[in-house]
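Lecture 7, part B: from sequences to assemblies.

Below are the input chains for today's worked example.
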Amino acid sequence: MTQKTALTPATHTTPSARFSRSVRKGDILQVAGQVGFLPAEQCRPPTPAGPTLREQTRQTLADAEAILEEGGAGWDDVMMIRVHLTDTDHFAEMNDIYDVCFDAQYLTRPPAARCPLPAARTTVHVGLPAGLLVAIDALAVLDRARPGHRSLEESYNEVGG
Amino acid sequence: MTQKTALTPATHTTPSARFSRSVRKGDILQVAGQVGFLPAEQCRPPTPAGPTLREQTRQTLADAEAILEEGGAGWDDVMMIRVHLTDTDHFAEMNDIYDVCFDAQYLTRPPAARCPLPAARTTVHVGLPAGLLVAIDALAVLDRARPGHRSLEESYNEVGG
Amino acid sequence: MTQKTALTPATHTTPSARFSRSVRKGDILQVAGQVGFLPAEQCRPPTPAGPTLREQTRQTLADAEAILEEGGAGWDDVMMIRVHLTDTDHFAEMNDIYDVCFDAQYLTRPPAARCPLPAARTTVHVGLPAGLLVAIDALAVLDRARPGHRSLEESYNEVGG
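Predicted structure of the full complex, as structure tokens:
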């Protein structure tokens, strides 16, 4: 049986309700809407990384990446990214920040691995809680054959063996 | 071959267009946006459970749960819940209703099963058709090994056996 | 190992940022938010199919369908469609266009295949970049046993064989 597990980096703030920052089950990993809060500190309520779109977007993507890494995954495994912006004037700026973030990530790789396939994306303008300018969530499909992602026992169970 | 099937509790209203209240295929179950309509009655158009956020949210979650159960699943199988609210002032109240609903559900379980792992979530403020305050959809991943969710034949097909 | 691949019909415009029009990995196919741009032409920026909801919605659905077909899939494989409208007055009209599109598609089939199971759907009203009235994305689950969707080697890898 494939268990659902949570992926919650220790630095992330506690969710405001009964939801998980991320869950994985089988080869599906779902990252909840990240909103760019600073790393958790005792006695401080969740605090945005800064007042600007740039600060919040970069923190949001870093938080999503930390979750993916905790799940043994990375941006290459991400199928869909949903970007929610609060200001229609932020669309072009968000695209710039988004592209720089992904370009920077891939520049650290060996040349042969530098041309990844980006995830699909939908970007919409919505309302978010006060002070938040962006919320980003992501759906990833993990590699089944990658060691650690699925035990032999789990795989045998799947085929009734 | 893995067939797509619909999960449509008999009490649910007919969708306003060519969409299904929920579909399942393989181990993926997708619940469409539920909006808290009262159980269907002949000669009555779809009617919200009430004018308040509480009434609509509780009905919405109950409708999603009925769909999950018809699919042999439950909240534990849900990976992602998307909450769409129309009023930015409703965020905190929705969280309270949300938590009470899930806490109440789990209190009915044996103690050993009382600490489930909640789904990931994204909450945004959008516009909805007049009179509706909340729309909630959910993505679930079912247990493959659970009897009935996947036949032996389907599993063998997957490995080319 | 299951590779992620892009599905990008040649006529589609280049995305505005580092995202793919669609990606497939294993049996999951995710269509990014389609917004009804006319087929790409050199030296012309992405241009909506027209100023009306009808033109944009029909183009959007046609673009999504072209992607599905490039992935060896079709509407029958789609589990979830997210419709994002900018104007709350467009809901009923969109439903009419939506239904006509799907009815028309299925009328071209042999009678025995004319009653497909529509995808689940969530429809919300949001903001979109200027000039765009609708954005539609879709999540599909492909048939694993269908030839070409998954090699024997991939399947054997899954069970550790």
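Note for the exam: Strands of chain B lie at 4-6, 22-25, 28-34, 78-85, 120-125, 134-141. Keep this in mind when comparing with the next example.
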